[in-house]
Amino acid sequence: MKPVLVTGASGFLGWHVARVLIERGLRVRGLVRKPGSIRELPVEEVVGDLRDRESLTRALTGCGLVFHVAADYRLWAKDKGEIYQSNVKGTRNLLEAARACGAERVVYTSTVGCIGFVPGGDGDETTPVTLESMTGAYKRSKYMAEQVALDFARRGFPVVIVNPTAPVGDHDIKPTPTGKTIVDFLKGNMPAYVDTGLNLVDVREVAEGHWLACEKGVPGERYILGSENLTLQQIFERLAAISGIPAPGVKIPWVIALAAGAANTAWSGMTGQEPRVPLDAVRMARKKMFVTHAKARRELGFEPSLSDAALRRAVSWFQANGYC
User: Fold this and answer.
1) Considering just the CA atoms, what is the radius of gyration of the chain in Å?
2) Is residue 183 part of a domain?
3) Nearest residue to 74 (alpha-carbon basis) of 21, 19, 20, 113
4) Nearest to 101 by CA among 49, 50, 56, 147
5) Is 263 within the bounds of a domain?
6) 37 SS3 class
7) Which letter, b or e, does each residue of 79-92 get, where b requires 16 or more Cβ atoms within 10 Å of its Cβ?
């Protein structure tokens, strides 16, 4: 049996993708920067870096399937070039090495941030979007990386693209920006909210969606892996029902949040410490990131549940592991 390579298997989504593959009896190899990074799963670790082509060749040798989940998922970095190096150059390196090593299929994990949004409606895989409409280094880099993946597919290499929305659930180790919002809520650090919205989805179901994309996805096509469109206020109300912690009742005007984000990020630029309110996060919040997963349901058989169970697992896991 050929091994399956998962990049990012030590992270939140990648860990769950690796778990899904193991449950299907596949032999999983994980690309890691440090040995011992992948916990609780029987994964063969290979030390490497997306910016190091030779290390990718070592990791990919003998692999049939590849799940490229790894990304530099930060909404702030003192050196934004690091984000582009990992997400854009790293994706090109990975795909070039996968093609050279004879990989049979690659599932590339993009983001809902590369989907266009419709005012008052739901975006889908056909909604027009441009690089100029991307906010911040993370979204721009992921858009550019997605274009790299599409170019490989157009030239005949079997790359299928998935666009997860905002996964929630257990094992959000870092945590992700969405997970950090949950942790801040549980710690009582969310006294107010802005009028924004996003699409939540169970991380376990997103991982299952990766396998469905591998089995049934068409190379060169994009598939949104999401579930439920919710306002931030609705998310806090659900967290309040789960945790017993009151939801914030004060809505902050966007311009005030923007000013706070600008000041906080400017201070971080001087100190090097991560901002509590990244400016790019506030800019993203101006739009409700509502989308539909109809294409993935129709073509892949992706049938996600509502987000309540995933939110409960996230709360329990964060509490049990000392995050709050």
Assistant:
1) 19
2) no
3) 113
4) 56
5) no
6) coil
7) ebeebbbbbbbbbb
| CA–CA gap between residue 97 and residue 99 (Å, rounded) | 5
Q: Residue 310 — φ and ψ, nearest 5°?
A: -65, -40
As for how many domains the chain has, the answer is 1
Instruction: Report helix, strand or coil for 242.
Output: helix
At 19 the three-state DSSP class reads helix
Task: List for the chain the helix, strand, coil content (%; round to 5).
Answer: 45, 15, 40
Q: Phi-psi category of 140—alpha, beta or left, where left has phi over 0 and alpha has psi -120 to 50? A: alpha
Cβ atoms < 10 Å from Cβ of 250: 7
Q: Which of 143, 31, 43 is nearest to 98 (CA)?
A: 31
Q: Has this prediction a pTM greater than 0.70?
A: yes
Read off the pLDDT of residues 24-60 as tens digits, 9 standing for 90 and up: 999 999 999 999 999 999 999 999 999 999 999 999 9
Quick check: 313 and 169 in contact, CB under 8 A?
A: yes
Tokens (6 digits) for 64: 């049939």
Closest-CA residue to 88 (of 146, 15, 155, 37): 146
Question: 70 lies in which domain range?
Answer: 4-171+201-226+290-305
For the chain, give the mean pLDDT.
92
Distance CA 64, CA 123 (A): 33
**Domain annotation covers residue 74:** yes
Per-residue pLDDT tens digits for 233-285 = 999 999 999 999 999 988 886 676 555 665 565 565 666 677 676 766 656 66
d(CA 211, CA 21): 8
CB atoms within 10 A of CB 127: 14
**Pairing relation of β-strands 197-202 and 228-231?**
antiparallel
Per the domain annotation, does 176 fall within a domain?
no
Instruction: Name 261's Cβ contacts closer than 8 Å, sequence gap at least 6.
Output: 275, 277, 278, 279, 281, 282, 283
Instruction: Respond yes or no on whether the N-terminal peptide bond of residue 175 is cis (omega within 30° of 0).
Output: yes
